[in-house]
Amino acid sequence: MADYDGDCFLVPGPVRMNQACLDAMATPVITARGAEFRAVMADLNSGLRYAFNLAPSRPEMKTQSWSGEDDYKVMAVSGSGTAAMEMIIANRFRPNDLVLVPTNGKFGERVAEMCKRFCNVKHIKYEWGRAFDLYELEQQLERKCYEAVLICHNETSSGITQDAPSIAEMCNRYETSFILDGITSIGGLPVNLEDWNVEAAAMGAQKCTAGPSGIAAIAFNSHFYERCKAIKEQGDVNALFYLDLISAHKKGDDDQTPWTPAINLAMGWAAALNALKAEGLNNRWQRCQELSTGVQNLFLDLGFDLPADISQRSATVTAVMYPEGIDDRWRSDLKENYATQVIGAQDHLKGKMFRIGSMGETTKEEMIEGCKRMILCFKDHGHELPQVDVDSYF
Ligand SMILES: Cc1ncc(COP(=O)(O)O)c(C=O)c1O
């Protein structure tokens, strides 16, 4: 296998951007309303539909590139993934609605927190990395009091992917809307909005699709749109202006946005999404899975603990507990001495765990080299590890 001698950037987003994405962002200024930008928007929309695993659309303006032969539309959002989730939540729920939010990590908890600003929430908090108790969720849904179930599909803070097909099946049986934070799943692991009858989902450019930070997107079906429209018409809508879905919807057919779009970020993201199309969505899912499986098996064999439940470990991020006596100083040394970056943990796990990203365009060679450097850095910190053949895990 070819050696890799560059920096290893193994962070679960933002991820490294390719040269085409960087070059596209260096395009000199264009207007926000002219044909040039509308062509960018159409290209972006077509790429977004591909990443969301929706029916295709043509990447040309005036072709309704945001829609396709299914019930979904896509919409770019200026702002990071959080803005996209807020757009979904703030437009879709009335202050009196009740939603169910099961969580097992920081980002799910953030979904619950965000919902609390706009509606009523039943927040079921599981330990970070533990799978949801589906029996408990079913008991909740039997009460038929929930407008929707919202989940963080791939919990980046603890490295667990939720069992979305089972939760979707339950939501459909109890006629409850199903909404996803797909910020580190969409584009990186299998997501099927149509089969699962997901009403709306959010993604962030800087994660699995290797685009720039500061732009995100939502996909939603007609039921979602009709509910948002009815709520607005009834005057029951939450306080919002910039993220008003109905204002944005009015501009969609025209490949336009209601406010000045993130023009150069959109150009960069469209280029990154074209790289995803060239690789193929299934190939990318498979590469992420192979990288994460390799990392997980390697660290288990080295004697580390992985906090996520074994049957639901994520394909795009692996959380690894530090062994006794090691803390985030290891991560600083890894960056300083080995030009290799992984990310730390949040909240109560800060300093006790680190996370390795396997999303975007990360290659097998980079991952192998990164893992070898991590092992060397653990040895520098006095942590003895068994001899392993790192290459053989990938
Ligand atoms: C699953 C998940 N949801 C939400 C977010 C927040 O997204 P952003 O930082 O793009 O606003 C992140 C960021 O890491 C994430 O991983």
Observed structural traits:
single chain; 394 residues; alpha/beta; Aspartate Aminotransferase, domain 1; Aspartate Aminotransferase, domain 2; 7-stranded mixed sheet; two-stranded parallel ribbon; 13 helices; 15% strand; globular; binds pyridoxal-5'-phosphate
Structural features, described:
A seven-stranded mixed sheet has the order 2-10-9-8-5-3-4, sandwiched between helices. Strands 1-12 form a two-stranded parallel ribbon. It contains 13 helices and 13 strands. Helix 1 (19-25) runs antiparallel to helix 10 (263-279), helix 2 (35-51) packs across helix 10 (263-279) and helix 3 (81-92) runs parallel beside helix 4 (106-118). The protein starts with 7 loop residues before the first strand and ends in a 14-residue tail after the last helix. The model has no long low-confidence stretch (mean pLDDT 97). It folds into two domains: 8-15 and 281-393, Alpha-Beta Complex (Aspartate Aminotransferase, domain 1); 19-278, Type I PLP-dependent aspartate aminotransferase-like (Major domain) (Aspartate Aminotransferase, domain 2, 3-Layer(aba) Sandwich), CATH 3.40.640. The chain has helices at 19-25, 35-51, 81-92, 106-118, 134-142, 164-173, 193-196, 222-233, 245-252, 263-279, 281-301, 329-338, 364-380; strands spanning 8-9, 72-78, 98-103, 120-125, 148-152, 154-155, 160-161, 177-181, 200-204, 215-221, 317-321, 340-341, 353-357. With 394 residues, the protein is α/β, with parallel strands linked by helices. Bound molecules: pyridoxal-5'-phosphate. Residues 13, 80-82, 107, 152, 154, 156, 181, 183-184, 204 line the site of pyridoxal-5'-phosphate.
